[in-house]
C-alpha cells in the first residue's frame, strides 16, 4: 500500500510520554532491511521487530510477510489493543508523507545495502533502471499490457510489479533440485514458443487482466481511498458494538455440544457403534467452529483465555493442534490465496487451484519446492473428480500436520505463548487416552467395529473440510502487486456462502468468510450483522462482493479444479511437442 494512511484512531500515532522519533527515509529503511532487519510501517511509524520475532504469538512468518510494507491494516485487524500498545516499544522512527511498499524479502524482494552520501538523489534513477531491467526480464509478463486501465507508473518498478510472482516461480525452479522435466524448460536453450512455462505465463497474464478489469485499479490513489473507507467502516463496526461477544449464543452452542456428546455416549453404551461414531463426528464438526473463533481471539478477545479454550477443544477433545492451526492460519490471513505463500492452497501433489502450481513453485511456508511430479500429474488430472474423496480424509491429514508441528516445536519457543505447546502435548495424551484407549480399545471389542467407528466418526466431519476450502478455492490467486490494499486483497480472494439464518449453526460462521477476513476478531455470531455493513462498503468502493449459495459455491470450486486439470493437459501437450522438437534439434546436430 502506498500513501499516508494515518489511522483515524490517530491517538496511536502520537508518541507516548512525549517521545519523538527520527524521520527515516525510504532509502534508509531499505538499507536496514538489506542488513536483515525486520522492519514494517505502522501508523506512520517505523517498527523494528528483530528482538520480538521469536516471541511473537502470531509466529515469525506472519511478520516476515509485512517487512518493508505498511502493515497498519493487517496489524489492526489481527491484534488486540494490548498487543498494539506493545508495538510502541519497538518503534525506531517515523516516516513522512506517503509510504511506498517494498516487496518483502520472504516474497523475493531485493533490497539495496547502504551506499555512500548522495545516494538519495539517485533514487529515481535507480527505480527507472530497475523498471527497464524488469521489463526485459519479464518481457512476456509485463502487467502494463495486461491491464485495460492505465496502471500506475509504480507498477513497472521492480518491487511493485504484479509479475513478481512470476519471478518467484522462476526462482523456485532454478533453486529446486528437482530433476523434473519442467526445470529444463527454463533452460535458455529450450525453444521458446512451445515452452510450457510460457503457456503458464500467458495464463497468469490472463488471470491478472481479468482481475484488473473486475476490481478497482491497484494504483496508490484508488487504494488509498478504499483504505480510508475501510478504516471508517472499522470504526463504525466498533461503535455499533459488533466486537462484543454474545455469550448467550455460546450457551446455545455448548448445549448443542452436550447433546451430541450425550448421544454419542448413550449409543456407545447400547453398542450402536455406527450411531455413536456419527454423533462424535457431528460433535467434532461443530467444535471446529468454536476452535476457529478461539484461535482468532474472537470469544473473550483475551489471547491467553481464548487460546486455552482453543487448546481444550482442539487438542483435548479433537486430537488436533491449535498451535499448528494458528501458525498456518495466520499466514493464510495475510497473503490469502497466494500460490507460493498461502499454505491453505498448497496441497500438492493432490490439488492445485492455480495453474501456477503446475510450475513447481517453492513454498515459503513449508520451505520446499512443491513439485509437480509424476504423482501430481496423475492426481491433478483427476482433481475435480477426486475432490470430495480427498475431503473425506481431511481429518486424518490434520493429525499428521498437528503432530509434525508439535514434535518439531514450530510454534513460538519463547514468551507468553511458549507454554501452550506443553499444554497441547498433554491434550494429545488426553485425547488418545479417551478416544484411543477408552473408546476404541476398551469400549469396543471387535476390530471390525473399531475400524468402522474410526471411519464413520472421521468421515462425518467431511463437510467442514469442504466448507474451509469453499471460501477460497474458486477465488482469484493472481498477484496484483504490493500496492493493493489489505481490504481489496481479502475481498478478491475470499467468497461468502449465502444461507438462511437457521442454517448458520451448520456453517459455523465460515459462511461469512469474506467479512471474517476483513475483520478476523469479530465474534462469529455478529458476522451476519456485519455482513450488511460490508456489503454497503463494497458497493461504495466498487469492489464486487462474492456471495454464492452452498451448491453454487461447490460448483465454482469443481469448475476451478477442472479448469486447472485442463491446463495441466495443455501443458503436457506443450511439453511433449517441445521434447519432440528438442529431439529433432538434437538429431540435426548429430548429422
Ligand atoms: C513488534 C511487532 C509486533 C508485536 C509486539 C506483536 C504482538 C502480538 C501479540 C501480543 C499477539 C497475541 C495476540 C494479541 O494479544 O493480540 C500477536 C498475535 C498475532 N500477530 Fe502480532 N505482533 C507484532 C507484529 C505483527 C505483524 C507485523 C503481523 C503481521 C500482520 C502480526 C500478526 C499477528 C497474528 C496473525 C497474530 C495471531 C493472532 C491470533 O492468534 O489470533 N504481528 N502479536
UniProtKB/TrEMBL annotation:
The chain crosses the membrane at residues 270-287, 307-325, 386-405, 425-444. Residues 21-96 form the Cytochrome b5 heme-binding domain. Residues 118-127 have a biased composition (Acidic residues). It is a multi-pass membrane protein. The keyword Iron applies. Its main location: membrane. Signal peptide: none annotated. Pathway: Sphingolipid metabolism; Lipid metabolism; sphingolipid metabolism. It holds the Pfam family FA_desaturase. The keyword Lipid metabolism applies. It comes from the Eukaryota. Belongs to the fatty acid desaturase type 1 family. This is Delta 8-(E)-sphingolipid desaturase.
Amino acid at each position: 500500500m502506498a500513501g499516508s494512511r494515518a489511522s483515524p484512531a490517530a491517538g496511536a500515532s502520537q508518541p507516548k510520554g512525549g517521545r519523538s522519533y527520527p524521520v527515516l527515509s525510504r532509502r534508509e529503511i531499505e538499507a536496514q532491511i538489506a542488513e536483515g532487519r525486520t522492519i514494517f510501517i505502522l501508523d506512520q511509524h517505523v517498527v523494528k521487530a528483530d528482538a520480538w520475532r521469536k516471541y511473537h504469538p502470531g509466529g515469525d512468518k506472519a511478520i516476515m510477510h509485512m517487512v518493508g510494507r505498511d502493515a497498519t491494516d493487517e496489524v489492526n485487524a489481527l491484534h488486540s489493543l494490548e498487543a498494539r500498545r506493545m508495538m510502541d516499544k519497538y518503534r525506531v522512527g517515523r516516516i513522512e508523507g506517503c509510504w511506498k511498499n517494498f516487496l518483502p524479502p520472504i516474497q523475493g524482494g531485493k533490497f539495496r545495502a547502504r551506499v555512500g552520501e548522495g545516494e538519495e538523489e539517485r533514487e529515481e534513477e535507480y527505480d527507472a533502471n530497475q523498471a527497464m531491467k524488469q521489463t526485459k526480464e519479464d518481457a512476456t509478463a509485463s502487467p502494463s499490457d495486461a491491464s485495460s486501465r492505465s496502471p500506475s507508473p509504480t507498477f513497472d518498478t521492480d518491487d511493485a510489479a504484479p509479475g513478481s510472482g512470476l519471478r518467484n516461480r522462476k526462482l523456485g525452479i532454478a533453486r529446486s533440485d528437482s530433476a523434473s522435466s519442467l526445470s529444463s524448460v527454463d533452460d535458455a536453450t529450450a525453444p521458446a514458443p512451445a515452452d510450457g512455462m510460457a503457456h503458464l505465463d500467458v495464463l497468469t497474464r490472463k488471470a491478472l487482466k481479468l482481475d484488473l478489469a473486475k476490481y478497482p485499479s491497484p494504483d496508490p490513489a484508488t487504494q488509498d481511498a478504499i483504505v480510508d473507507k475501510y478504516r471508517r467502516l472499522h470504526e463504525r463496526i466498533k461503535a455499533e458494538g459488533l466486537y462484543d461477544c454474545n455469550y448467550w449464543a455460546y450457551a446455545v452452542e455448548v448445549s448443542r455440544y452436550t447433546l451430541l456428546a450425550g448421544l454419542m455416549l448413550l449409543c456407545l453404551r447400547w453398542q450402536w457403534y455406527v450411531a455413536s461414531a456419527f454423533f462424535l463426528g457431528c460433535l467434532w464438526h461443530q467444535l471446529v467452529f468454536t476452535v476457529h473463533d478461539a484461535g482468532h481471539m474472537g470469544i473473550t478477545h483475551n489471547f491467553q483465555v481464548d487460546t486455552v479454550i482453543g487448546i481444550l477443544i482442539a487438542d483435548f477433545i479433537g486430537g488436533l493442534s491449535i498451535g499448528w492451526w494458528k501458525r498456518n492460519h495466520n499466514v493464510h490471513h495475510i497473503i490469502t490465496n497466494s500460490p507460493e505463500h498461502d499454505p491453505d492452497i498448497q496441497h500438492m501433489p493432490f490439488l492445485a487451484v492455480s495453474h501456477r502450481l503446475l510450475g513447481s513453485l517453492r513454498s515459503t511456508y513449508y520451505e520446499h519446492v512443491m513439485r509437480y511430479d509424476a504423482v501430481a500429474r496423475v492426481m491433478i488430472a483427476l482433481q475435480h473428480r477426486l475432490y470430495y474423496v480427498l475431503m473425506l480424509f481431511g481429518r486424518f491429514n490434520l493429525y499428521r500436520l498437528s503432530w509434525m508441528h508439535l514434535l518439531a516445536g514450530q510454534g513460538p519457543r519463547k514468551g507468553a505463548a511458549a507454554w501452550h505447546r506443553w499444554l497441547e502435548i498433554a491434550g494429545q495424551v488426553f485425547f488418545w487416552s479417551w478416544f484411543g484407549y477408552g473408546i476404541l480399545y476398551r469400549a469396543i471389542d471387535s476390530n471390525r467395529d473399531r475400524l468402522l467407528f474410526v471411519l464413520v466418526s472421521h468421515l462425518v466431519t467431511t463437510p467442514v473440510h469442504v466448507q474451509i476450502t469453499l471460501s477460497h478455492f474458486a477465488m482469484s490467486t493472481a498477484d496484483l502487486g504490493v500496492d493493493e490494499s489489505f481490504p481489496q486483497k481479502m475481498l478478491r480472494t475470499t467468497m461468502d456462502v449465502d444461507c438462511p439464518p437457521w442454517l448458520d449453526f451448520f456453517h459455523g460462521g465460515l459462511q461469512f468468510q469474506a467479512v471474517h477476513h476483513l475483520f478476523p476478531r469479530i465474534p462469529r455470531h455478529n458476522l451476519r450483522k456485519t455482513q450488511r455493513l460490508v456489503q454497503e462498503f463494497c458497493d461504495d468502493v466498487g469492489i464486487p462482493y462474492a456471495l454464492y449459495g452452498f451448491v453454487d459455491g461447490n460448483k465454482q470450486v469443481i469448475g476451478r479444479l477442472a479448469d486447472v486439470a485442463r491446463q495441466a493437459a495443455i501443458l503436457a501437450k506443450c511439453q511433449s511437442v517441445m521434447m519432440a522438437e528438442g529431439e529433432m534439434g538434437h538429431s540435426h546436430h548429430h548429422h
